[in-house]
Design goal:
The protein has 2 domains: about 5-215, Spore Coat Polysaccharide Biosynthesis Protein SpsA, Chain A (Alpha-Beta Complex); about 240-314, no CATH class. The protein has 12 helices and 9 strands. By secondary structure, it is of the alpha/beta class.
Length: about 325
């Protein structure tokens, strides 16, 4: 039985797989399996993985016709045999000491369910690396509240920074396949509400590659829709005896404002720093007005249209 199962969904990202594979092989833990799920890929993904299977039997390929990244990862979870689960997107890489540090942490803290660390951005060819000093990567307790209120704005944690015990998925379920984006946020909140114990080491574990084809950067409509879907589900779930309707609306609006601002910032809109305080003041005032949530949703459709217009004009 392998110690770690690596799950890589790939949709037409085959040209990045060589870097991803090397970052896995370079780990200090040789006892792993890597499952690549070709998610309707029409590029060279299948050929690359099959050749890797021949060279190294620890790698294997599963082909599915189409699906969300969440459904592809769920296929990998079902096939995985490892004691720990490592997710990795095809265009990202792990740094060499990641698993050794994380397994040492698990051994010293056996109550820990999930361990993670820091990340750095890198350019297409990994020649330039940088850290966004405006965000943090360490959760503050209660973790579910931190995730709900600060995700995409003050808090960003790519999924490949984590190492999960397999028992997390056995106890608390897999990813929500209906989500095209923010399936990771949904998973983190659900695990946190279920009582997961988190461990953190302040060391860079992974690189997150920035390139023009990245789905997470380009599709604001899908990002916003799924972000709100997750947000509404868990704010309602956690609101019993904790939030009244006004405070629910406050958190709903402020978190959505955070998402818009965070999205603009990650798209390199330098003027986001100027408009940020004004947006928050406006949204805070709006949150105190007794307005039905459906009206709020229509209002935010106008906000979305404004952002799309700004994007297209840049």
């Amino acid at each position: 039985m392998p110690i770690i199962s690596v799950i890589i969904p790939s949709h037409c990202y085959g040209h990045f797989l060589y870097d991803a594979f090397k970052s896995i092989v370079d780990q200090d833990i040789p006892d792993f399996e890597c499952i690549v799920i070709s998610n309707g890929a029409t590029d060279q993904t299948t050929a690359i993985v099959k050749q890797q299977e021949i060279n190294d039997p620890r790698f294997s390929l599963i082909e599915i016709t189409s699906g969300t990244p969440a459904s592809a990862r769920n296929v990998g979870i079902e096939k995985a045999k490892g004691l720990y689960i490592q997710f990795l997107d095809a265009d990202d890489v792990l740094l060499s000491e990641k698993w050794k540090i994380q397994l040492d942490f698990f051994n010293k803290h056996p109550e820990t369910d999930i361990h993670y660390g820091n990340f750095e951005y890198c350019d297409l060819n990994r020649k330039k690396r940088w850290i966004d000093t405006k965000i943090r990567t360490q959760l503050k307790p209660p973790e579910y509240q931190d995730l709900i209120l600060n995700w995409e704005y003050r808090l960003i944690i790519p999924i490949h920074t984590f190492l999960f015990r397999r028992s997390c998925f056995n106890q608390w379920g897999k990813m929500d396949p209906s989500l095209k984006t923010h399936e990771d946020l949904d998973l983190y909140i659900r695990f946190s509400l279920s009582g997961a114990k988190w461990g953190f080491t302040p060391k860079t574990f992974v690189l997150y590659r920035i390139h023009t084809a990245s789905n997470s950067r380009n599709d604001i409509t899908s990002n916003r829709k799924n972000f709100l879907q997750v947000l509404e589900k868990y704010i309602f779930e956690t609101s019993h005896n904790k939030y009244n309707m006004i405070s629910f609306k406050y958190h709903y609006i402020i978190t959505l404002a955070s998402f818009h601002i965070g999205y603009l910032r990650r798209r390199n809109f330098n003027w986001w720093i100027v408009i940020q305080p004004r947006i928050f003041i406006f949204y805070k005032i709006l949150s105190l007005i007794v307005i039905p949530i459906p009206f709020m949703n229509r209002f935010f459709e106008h906000i979305k249209s404004f952002i799309k217009a700004v994007m297209s004009s840049k």
